[in-house]
Design brief:
With 447 residues, the protein is of the alpha+beta class. Among the domains are: 158 residues, FAD/NAD(P)-binding domain, CATH 3.50.50; 123 residues, no CATH class. 35% of the residues lie in helices and 23% in strands. Strands 1, 2, 9, 10, 11, 12, 19 and 20 form an 8-stranded mixed β-sheet that branches. Strands 13, 15, 16, 17 and 18 form a 5-stranded antiparallel β-sheet that branches. Strands 6-7-5-14 form a 4-stranded mixed β-sheet, with helices on both faces. 44% of the residues are buried. It binds flavin-adenine dinucleotide. The site of flavin-adenine dinucleotide has 39 residues, from helix 2 and strand 18.
Length: 447
C-alpha cells in the first residue's frame, strides 16, 4: 500500500503519530479522573466519612480532595486534643448521642490501631454559688447522656484528692475524658481509606462545580490550578470554607462561617506539676465555647486556653494574618454585627485576653491560685468555623444543604454540603461518619 500511495501513507503515519499519544493519554488518564463519590475536605469529618462510605461500598470509586499538602491542617490539627465524654449537651440531642458514641468508638479504634491516648480525666469546677447551680444541671445532663462513671465532688477536700492544687466549691469528675492527637487519628482514617482503594488527592483546591458533558459523571469539579475531575456524587466537609463551597453549587450564603481564633498559653515546664489532668470552668450557657481550660497534651506539655476572638482571615492563626475580603465579609455580615452588639463586653474581654496574658491568667487563677503570669508563655492557636445566621444566632447543630431547584439544579442535587459539624467534631468523628454515610445513601439513593 505504501508503494501505491506513498505520500498519503506518510501523511497518515505523521497524523497517527500526532494523535496516538493524545488517544493513549485519554484512554489511560480519563478513568483516573472519574469517580462515583468524591469527598471535598480532608479534615477529620471528611476523612472519617469517606472511610466509612468506602467501607460500606467497596466497589465504588472514591476520592478525597484536599487543598493543603496534607490531611488535618486546619481545625482538626489545631484543637485542644480532648476526647470529650458528652457532659455538656442537651439530653436526647444529636450532639449528645454522637459524642457519647464517638468516645466509645474512638477508644475502640485507637486500641485496635495502637494509636496512643491517655485517659487523663477531667474536672469541671464551680467557683461561685451561681456556678454550683449550673454544675448541678450539668451533672443531670451528663447522667441522662450516660457519661461513664461521672461523679459529683462535694467540697474542696474531694476536689483536692483529684487535683491537689485546684480550688473550687464543687466539681464534676469525668475519669473517661481523654487526650489524643486528632491529626494522627485522621492520618489513620486516611490510611484505611487508601487501603480500601480510595484515593487522596492533595493540593486540590476546589473552586467550581459545573455540569460535565458526560451523563455518567455529571458533576465536573475544577481546582484553582485548573485540574479537573468528574463525579457522580459529591459530599463537601469544608470546615472554615463550608459556606463558600456550598455557594459554588448554587446554595444560599447563609448560614455564614465566621472564623473565631482561640489562642493558647503554655504552662512553663517548671510549673507543670501543678496540674494533672483536664480542668475546665463551668461554661457560660450563652456561648458555644467551653471557656479557658487546662489541657494536658500528649507530648507532656500543658496548654491553657483558648480565648475566642474574630480571626481576620478564615485560616488566620495570628493577628497579622489578614485577608481583607474575608475580614469585610465577617465585619459587614448582619449576623456578626448583631452578635457583637449583643455581647460587647464579652467580646472586648476576649480581645484583652489575647493582648494581655495576665487577663487570661487571672481567669485560670480561680482554679489554680498559685500560677502567675511569669509561669506561662504564648502558645499556638486554632480557628473555629462558627456557623451563624443573619440574625446573629450561632448554629449549634449539624446543617446540611443541597441546591435542588433553579438553573444549577442538575448538579446541585448531586452535591451535598455539610455546612456545620459542631464541636466536638473530632471526638464524634466516627459516629458522625456513620450518620453522614446514611445521609449519602438516602439523598443519592445508593444501595
Ligand atoms: C480551638 C479549637 C479547639 C477544639 N477542641 C476540640 C477538642 O478538644 N475535642 C474535639 O473533639 N473537638 C475540638 N474542636 C472541634 C474540632 O476540632 C472540629 O469539630 C473538627 O476538627 C472539624 O473537622 P472538619 O473536618 O469539619 O474541619 P477541618 O479540620 O477544618 O477540615 C476541613 C478541611 O477542608 C479543606 N478545604 C476547605 N475548603 C476546601 C476547598 N475549596 N478545596 C479542598 N479542600 C478544602 C480544608 O483545607 C480542611 O482540611 C476544637 C476546635 C477548635 C477550633
Amino acid at each position: 500500500m505504501s508503494r501505491i500511495f506513498p505520500e498519503t501513507f506518510k501523511a497518515s503515519e505523521k497524523r497517527l503519530k500526532q494523535i496516538l499519544p493524545k488517544f493513549v493519554r485519554c484512554l489511560t488518564s480519563k478513568p483516573n479522573n472519574e469517580y462515583d463519590v468524591i469527598v471535598v475536605g480532608g479534615g477529620i469529618v471528611g476523612t472519617a466519612s469517606a472511610r466509612e462510605f468506602k467501607n460500606r461500598h467497596p466497589t465504588l470509586k472514591m476520592a478525597i480532595l484536599e487543598k493543603e499538602n496534607d490531611l488535618a491542617r486546619h481545625q482538626t490539627g489545631h484543637n485542644s486534643g480532648v476526647i470529650h465524654a458528652g457532659i455538656y449537651y442537651k439530653p436526647g440531642s444529636l450532639k449528645a448521642k454522637l459524642c457519647v458514641e464517638g468516645l466509645r468508638l474512638t477508644y475502640q479504634y485507637c486500641d485496635e490501631k495502637k494509636i496512643p491516648y491517655k485517659k487523663a480525666g477531667k474536672l469541671i469546677v464551680a467557683t461561685t454559688e451561681k456556678e454550683v447551680l449550673l454544675l448541678t444541671d450539668l451533672h443531670d445532663r451528663g447522667l441522662k447522656n450516660e457519661v461513664p462513671e461521672l461523679k459529683l465532688l462535694k467540697g474542696r477536700e474531694e476536689i483536692k484528692k483529684v487535683e491537689p492544687h485546684c480550688e473550687g466549691l464543687e466539681a464534676l469528675w469525668s475519669p473517661h475524658t481523654g487526650i489524643i492527637d486528632w491529626a494522627l487519628v485522621t492520618q489513620h482514617y486516611g490510611k484505611d481509606f487508601q487501603q480500601l482503594g480510595g484515593e487522596i488527592r492533595l493540593n486540590f483546591e476546589v473552586n467550581g462545580f459545573h455540569e460535565s458533558d458526560d451523563p455518567n459523571f455529571p458533576v465536573e469539579i475544577t481546582s484553582k490550578d485548573t485540574a479537573t475531575v468528574k463525579s457522580k456524587y459529591v459530599l463537601t466537609c469544608g470546615g472554615l470554607h463550608a459556606d463558600k463551597l456550598a455557594e459554588l453549587s448554587g446554595c444560599a450564603r447563609d448560614p455564614r462561617i465566621v472564623p473565631f481564633r482561640g489562642e493558647y498559653l503554655i504552662l512553663n515546664p517548671s510549673k507543670r506539676h501543678l496540674v494533672k489532668g483536664n480542668i475546665y470552668p463551668v461554661p457560660d450557657p450563652r456561648f458555644p465555647f467551653l471557656g479557658v481550660h487546662f489541657t494536658p497534651r500528649m507530648d507532656g506539655s500543658m496548654w491553657l486556653g483558648p480565648n475566642a476572638v474574630l480571626a481576620f482571615k478564615r485560616e488566620g492563626y495570628r493577628w497579622s494574618d489578614i485577608n481583607l475580603s474575608e475580614l469585610m465579609d465577617a465585619l459587614l455580615y448582619p449576623g456578626f454585627i448583631k452578635m457583637a452588639l449583643k455581647y460587647p463586653k464579652a467580646g472586648l474581654r476576649e480581645i484583652l485576653k489575647s493582648w494581655v496574658p495576665s487577663v487570661q491568667v487571672k481567669e485560670l487563677k480561680k482554679y489554680i491560685p498559685v500560677i502567675t503570669v511569669e509561669d506561662v508563655s504564648r502558645g499556638p492557636a486554632g480557628v473555629r468555623a462558627q456557623a451563624m445566621d443573619s440574625k446573629g444566632n450561632l448554629v449549634d447543630d449539624f446543617y446540611f444543604d443541597m441546591f435542588k431547584t433553579g438553573g444549577n439544579s442538575k448538579i446541585g442535587s448531586r452535591v451535598l454540603h455539610c455546612r456545620n459539624a459542631p464541636s466536638p467534631g473530632a471526638t464524634s468523628s466516627l459516629a458522625i461518619a456513620k450518620m453522614m454515610a446514611d445521609k449519602l445513601e438516602q439523598e443519592f439513593e445508593i444501595k
